[in-house]
Amino acid sequence: METRAWWKEAVVYQIYPRSFADSNGDGIGDLNGITQHLDYLKDLGVDVIWISPFYPSPNYDNGYDISDYRGINPEFGTMEDFDRLLSEVHARGMKMVIDLVVNHSSSEHPFFIESRKSRDNPYRDWYIWKDGKNGNPPNNWGSCFSGSAWQYDEATDQYYLHLFAPQQPDLNWANPKVRDAVFDMMTWWCDKGIDGYRMDVIGMIGKENFDDGPVAPGGLYGSFESSCQHTQTTHRYIREMRERVLDRYDLLTVGEAGGTVEQAVRYASLDGKELNMIFSFEHNDALNDGTALGKWSDHQAQLQEVREILNRWQTALIGKAWNSVYLSNHDQPRQVSRYGNDGPLYRVRSAKMLATLIHLMHGTPYIYNGEELGMTNIYFTDLEQYRDVEVFNAWKQWVGSGLVHPEDMMRYFAKISRDNARTPMQWDTTKHAGFTTGTPWIEVNRNYLEINAADEVRDPDSVYHYYRKLIALRHEQKVVVYGSFVPLLEDDPMVYAYCRELDGKQMTVLCNWTQKTAPCTLKDETAGEIVLSNYALHQPGVLQPYEAIVFLN
Ligand code: NOJ
């Protein structure tokens, strides 16, 4: 058996604070709102809460642009509120992971305000400044949020690098003073008692060169991938972080990195030199059809594509590195809308099926707030309804240039935009779904009368109670955490199946990914006790629409 660790046995629940629960009626979720709902999370059974950024921020990217790494955004509360939240989390035997966003800061961070003042400012070298080339940016890189990755700054006649929005300048990790400042800040939060870090785009911190990158067919900008993603230098910085900070505490560390399985094995190797685990992007990127438009498409991910990717990650990492497993987060649309079926007939069954598929795999499972209720995409029809900088920049780049028809772009946004997952948590049937007594910062999904926590907590057949059972199963059965992973029926057009084994115990997981009845040929594996299913009755030899069933031998 692999070495035991609390973060391998845990289930993590991600909270997007702006959308979770508003305690003071300003329409924005806050820390006290989270504290008020800790019993709900404890009852669900989760072990760890990861809270997306709550630091002071001008909010160009909802807090992923930080202007003070040691403070609390007044919209979310005070440091006393944070301390109380942390101690209430600990009092319930849970742990708390916070977001570390240090590839870039906000352009309103005092470091950057200084840095842009003059070429000889002591903070100049804390960011990445370059001369233009013949009136153009220093190279052809495009930012992740559309447009050039370089912003011209008239005051000093140079460009600065921003791999995301212009309000998110990249910190210069090559400068040891930057690393010292980041490591000191991390130590400060660890000494406060936090239990881990989710590290935002950590694979981008080590920039190795500034050469032009390849331009995808039909694209407007070059890729920075080979210069800035998963470089040797990034691994060196992470090892330094490990030695100088992480190794001094007992933490959960998860890098938001993406990349290939080989890269994941380096970041999350069981030898413990870098991180505990990383988030892979490949399965969610299976929707991306590889054109210059990137994620903006309405391509529907097929079972074959998703299964090939997830199975490859499972089998490649087992015994070498630790997986994290998830379908949803604040950067993805709602999983039941994307991979399942959010219509009235199959929403509940398909939400449970997807949860089964993910939670019983090898790796630490992550639940994104509202996923445990089977919350769906909101399907905005008007650009005005959106709040996300990524949407507005993409609109400017693709519709503004006439390359994409507005109706197509609106269809892509409705399918894939991040705001789908950022609508307020649906607590009950009162006004604004019980999220706020004020005006919510983004519209509440109108389906809250049918989909809400209060009803689901009361209904033993709800998606919520199914998640409770799944989490309990992980806590009871070591095979879920430490078992091997054997893919089954790898060519089946309808069924996703796999088996986990540990010390003679075998757990078989069968999931019908479709709304049709699927034949199922497995015999021996389905002989054991049924420990979980989303149907009251299993019909041997077939799987009913979106049926998920788990056998233990
Ligand atoms: C990844 C975060 O998850 C996303 O929300 C953010 O926009 C970018 N990194 C930039 O920080």
Give a structural overview.
With 553 residues, the protein is an alpha/beta fold. It folds into 3 domains: 392 residues, Glycosidases (TIM Barrel), CATH 3.20.20; 52 residues, Oligo-1,6-glucosidase, Domain 2 (Oligo-1,6-glucosidase, domain 2), CATH 3.90.400; 70 residues, Golgi alpha-mannosidase II (Immunoglobulin-like), CATH 2.60.40.1180. 30% of the residues lie in helices and 14% in strands. The chain contains 19 helices and 18 strands. Strands 9-8-7-3-2-1-11-10 form an 8-stranded parallel β-sheet. A hairpin with a 6-residue loop joins strand 12 and strand 13. It is globular and about 75 Å long. Bound molecules: 1-deoxynojirimycin (NOJ).
Short summary:
This protein has 553 residues and is of the alpha/beta class. The protein folds into three domains: 7-104 and 176-469, Glycosidases (TIM Barrel, Alpha-Beta Barrel); 110-161, Oligo-1,6-glucosidase, domain 2; 483-552, Sandwich (Immunoglobulin-like).
